[in-house]
Amino acid sequence: MSEALRPMVKSRLYEQVLERLRAYVAEAGLSAGDKLPAERELAASLGVSRASVKQAIVVLEVQGLVEARHGGGTYLVRDTLDVEPVEQLVERRKRLPEVLEAREALETKLAELAAERRTDAELEDIRQALDFMRDEIAGGDFGVEGDRRFHAAVTAAAHSSLLADFMKTIAGQITESRTESLRQPGRPSRSLAQHTAIYEAIAAGDPKKAAAAMRKHVRTVAKVRLLDWVPED
Fold this sequence. Notes:
By secondary structure, the protein is mainly α. The protein has helices at about 15-30, 40-45, 50-60, 85-115, 120-140, 145-160, 160-170, 170-180, 185-205, 205-220, 225-230, and strands at about 65-70, 75. A hairpin with a 3-residue loop joins strand 1 (about 65-70) and strand 2 (about 75). The longest helix is centred in the middle third of the chain and has 32 residues, at about 85-115.
């Protein structure tokens, strides 16, 4: 059957709640650190069940836009609720495990090779990327660009054109996994510490330690709220 004639999808109620919450935050002028109304209050105001409100809050949590504190309410993490479409979120959830598997295989070997082959100039590039990420995080950002620079510098230091080509092939998916990981609460500082351990192993010329540090890091990247989320029909 033609793709254009596929069955139409009815908008889920909690997706409508998401849009109302986005508009409410904008109209009320709320910003990071502000508290959203209680689920019961939101449900009554919107004329929906608390279950629908709860589903919407979970989607916001998955995207790192709010923090739901047990018994303490829900707080904004960012200044806006620019919610990613749920269908895009579902698709990324499907492909993320394979991307993370590929990252572990490729980047562990790249770190090992970098420890064996890096030049002093390439080691300096890795250190500068680390400093850039540290400054980003200190300024309140997630450290996404510094993270990208760090892994790019490690790849360059490995002197493996074929592995570098493989990394370029999945660059878009890697960017998704990087952003997904770094928006987890507390993750930027943890990632920075793990990058530091990778850098130190490469600087010491210890391939096994560099590979182990990279493997630990990529497995931390894999621990994201999105993979625990079960989309509601």
